[in-house]
Amino acid sequence: MRVLITGASGRVGRELVKVFTAAGHQVSATTSATLDVTDWSAVWKALHALVPDVVVNAAAWTDVDACQDDRERAERVNWHAVVHLVEAAEAVGAHVCHLSTDYVFDGRKPDPYVEDDEANPLSVYGWSKLLGERALRPDDTLVRTAWIIPRHGPSIITYLIAQSSLFLPFVDDQRGSPTIASDLAAKVLELTEARLGGVFHVTNQGAATWFELARATMESLRLGPERIKPISAAELDPPRRAPRPANSVLDNAALRREGIALLPHWRESLPRLCDDIVYDR
Ligand SMILES: NC(=O)c1ccc[n+]([C@@H]2O[C@H](COP(=O)([O-])OP(=O)(O)OC[C@H]3O[C@@H](n4cnc5c(N)ncnc54)[C@H](OP(=O)(O)O)[C@@H]3O)[C@@H](O)[C@H]2O)c1
To answer: Is residue 281 predicted with pLDDT exceeding 90?
Structure first.
């Protein structure tokens, strides 16, 4: 396939470029410097020049707190850009695979969220991503994911490696689905190759609070997990500008329905990722 990957320098984008290239596809990887997805005419020209079979949109403005202060920019990147990409994809006959977030949910459901649960975002970021979702055609692939842990760049792993404080507070009243970026990318490849349309929750299996994730990360790094202390989100100082859902665990129900293998438990993938990151340093 000829594949255009936007946001290719991002946490997920980098892994997507790796897996699509390794699978033998012809990949055009763009960043905000080479294709600004908010620029309608640039998007139109790029898709007409490349005529891709598939567009994988990993471009987004993901700074949840900054989005809260700049709705206009959040909507331009996370919503309007998706409209541009889908319009251009329609014109050249391309399939679109778009990434979205667990933050489209309000977190009030006591159980994991399935794909057709009602979205009701708490934050500007969540709303802008939900509007982006609604720009897709029914046959496009919408992949909602969560709590990405990347191989490259800043992450909870690099943060914890750099800390020397004896006590490290982590929020223990927000629960989500930690997801290793490379595991996610492999499943996006599978869904895209199959051109499976509809909404898919794609996360590593298992849930955690930030406190539980930080403790498990310290264990994997062979540092002292007892240094991680639980706090509530309300105790964060300074407080975060954007509210987060208390529960945003994603049930991968659509993958199960389609008979597609689920990603491993995050506790299985995390130690490997920690070793890779430590080995790199
Ligand atoms: N990170 C998470 O925990 C998480 C959780 C749930 C869902 N997601 C979703 O997963 C997808 C990928 O997220 P990520 O974590 O990889 O985000 P990321 O690391 O912030 O990467 C996003 C990329 O988008 C690019 N971008 C921003 N504005 C752009 C523009 N106007 N034109 C073109 N590119 C632009 C950025 O490129 P530059 O750096 O060049 O500006 C950046 O490399 C997003 O849809 C996000 O909503 C992420």
So the answer is: no
The tokens describing 9, both together, are 């320098």
170-184 per-position pLDDT tens digit: 999 999 999 999 999
pLDDT given for residue 144 in this prediction: 98
- Please report the DSSP string for 43-104 in residue order: HHHHHHHH--SEEEE------HHHHHH-HHHHHIIIIIHHHHHHHHHHHHT-EEEEEEEGGG
pLDDT at 280: 86
- Please state which of the four CATH numbers 3.40.50.720, 3.40.50.150, 3.40.50.360, 3.60.150.10 is assigned to the domain occupying 2-154+177-206+249-264: 3.40.50.720
The reported pTM is 0.98
What does the pLDDT look like over 40-75, one tens digit per residue?
999 999 999 999 999 999 999 999 999 999 999 999
Map residue 2 onto helix, strand or coil.
strand
Q: How far is the CA of 59 from the centre of ligand 1 (A)?
A: 4
The whole-angstrom separation of Cα 199 and Cα 148 is 18
Separation of 99 CA from ligand 1 center, angstroms? Answer: 9
Ligand 1 atom at minimal distance to the Cα of residue 102: 6
The whole-angstrom separation of Cα 266 and Cα 53 is 32
Active site residue 125: yes
